Amino acid sequence: xxxxxxxxxxxxxxxxxxxxxxxxxxxxxxxxxxxxxxxxxxxxxxxxxxxxxxxxxxxxxxxxxxxxxxxxxxxxxxxxxxxxxxxxxxxxxxxxxxxxxxxxxxxxxxxxxxxxxxxxxxxxxxxxxxxxxxxxxxxxxxxxxxxxxxxxxxxxxxxxxxxxxxxxxxxxxxxxxxxxxxxxxxxxxxxxxxxxxxxxxxxxxxxxxxxxxxxxxxxxxxxxxxxxxxxxxxxxxxxxxxxxxxxxxxxxxxxxxxxxxxxxxxxxxxxxxxxxxxxxxxxxxxxxxxxxxxxxxxxxxxxxxxxxxxxxxxxxxxxxxxxxxxxxxxxxxxxxxxxxxxxxxxxxxxxxxxxxxxxxxxxxxxxxxxxxxxxxxxxxxxxxxxxxxxxxxxxxxxxxxxxxxxxxxxxxxxxxxxxxxxxxxxxxxxxxxxxxxxxxxxxxxxxxxxxxxxxxxxxxxxxxxxxxxxxxxxxxxxxxxxxxxxxxxxxxxxxxxxxxxxxxxxxxxxxxxxxxxxxxxxxxxxxxxxxxxxxxxxxxxxxxxxxxxxxxxxxxxxxxxxxxxxxxxxxxxxxxxxxxxxxxxxxxxxxxxxxxxxxxxxxxxxxxxxxxxxxxxxxxxxxxxxxxxxxxxxxxxxxxxxxxxxxxxxxxxxxxxxxxxxxxxxxxxxxxxxxxxxxxxxxxxxxxxxxxxxxxxxxxxxxxxxxxxxxxx
Length: 713
Hints:
By secondary structure, this protein is an alpha+beta fold. α28 runs antiparallel to α29.
């Protein structure tokens, strides 16, 4: 473990005594690595124990005096002055000498010494860094605010008032900072720093990122330190690369940075990318990785990715044989069947050997058990190719693959090999099973549905097959809405339906019969994810093919699955749900805890009452949440003009000649005192579909429809 790593570990453990011991040992080194010394001092400065560490380095050996390289000397002394607390004459002289060596020709040298406190030599901790900041700040220069204001551009500087004006990325307006405040919070940024470029000219940085993503990511890692893929996204997405372009851009960038000599890629998805100060050749990178402790599986993935990304390196015979020796070392270990098989596949690619060993091995096991354990897609397919060749019962196995949670490419290969072998009859049986029980294997159904609509020459890709699969698709869609684990799949399914201006829906409606299209509309009405606009478009597309779908009976059937409400009613119900979830439930939880604290739960009536109340609240919340998912806001266009419907204000005349007005709205607006009835009530059901002059019988009373109008008029 390096000294830097030891200090990091001890700071994490807060072991200052051990740090002092290790520092004493470290500072007496000869020769001293100045680059490492800078990293150690930066670590001390950033620590919350920096005052204690400052006292420690002053009492020890003055190791900084042994740094003679000009490129490191200034930064070492700057950090020592940042850490020191004594403000001794020695430290004052060190700070002054450090500044004179670099800034002696500065015409404002003496004035700046006064501002940073070195003229009086009383309090000058951080004086060298302060001078560096004073020299940096000028109009158009960039700084970073450590208090959360982010990157800023200097707008104005006044040494007379000892203040500067800066426009920051995270706060509104121009901020005026006194030099004393700036010294404590601002860090100077060079013009070519990643943060300077992102704040100063993001359009130019975007152009550069699109042309050369590796260069921009190198800059980011060099200036900001190691970052995970998610960290890189947070630094670049929206700020540099538009959010909608991110996935495509990152896919391209990720492939390029894997081959970049200056970037060290992580071993796993959550790991960090890092900037390499020392550039390694591909073969050096390979042996550096393999010289570390790694499992056989890690070695397999490393060898595969290395061969894929750096295939030309294997033209070097010496390197090729060195890799072979590494492979032989791994083969001496205790390996599983799938690990040995994957190594043999890679050896076949690189050295054109192990073909017979592979076939012999594959004959001895059930391929599907091994298939799921191999994670490299190309090697999965290679395994299937060998199974196809050497296992007599491969057809049975390939049929089973259609139902496995395997990548699309694997299922595609198995499917098309079965078709090439003239086993369409068996494929049809399996597809019928997928169609019948799609809810058991939603991803399998989704995989084959895409083939059906893509017009492949496969079973069920004819007109009848498309009709049946589309019906199954809508049924599965409504089932998945309540399954939180299938949100991503549901999103893909929805996207397929609405893309290209509902092209798929139009095509299916055109080939379906009237009864089938009606059934589709009813199934669509059960899917709460569809917006009002979606439902209207579905009905419009259906009416283009079958105009008679727009009649009253169809509308009545369609509305059976909808809870109509006004905008005000919908908002009121949302507020009720929010109130239960954020106020009443929280209050009840406190009541339960307070009642539990009284003890004797069997005889505790307060506790039982609190639990009953909790059950009522949970039941109401569940009911309202289900209902609001079915809710559809009623608009002027939803109310029919030729017959009574939801949204009608109806005038009825009784036998006595008296008239009454009734308004038909949703259950949330129902108010008997105001003669507002729910469209779900028996009375409203009797009125629905009636016209002027029609008679209505309800509870042994008879009425005649005198007139009706639109609620929104």
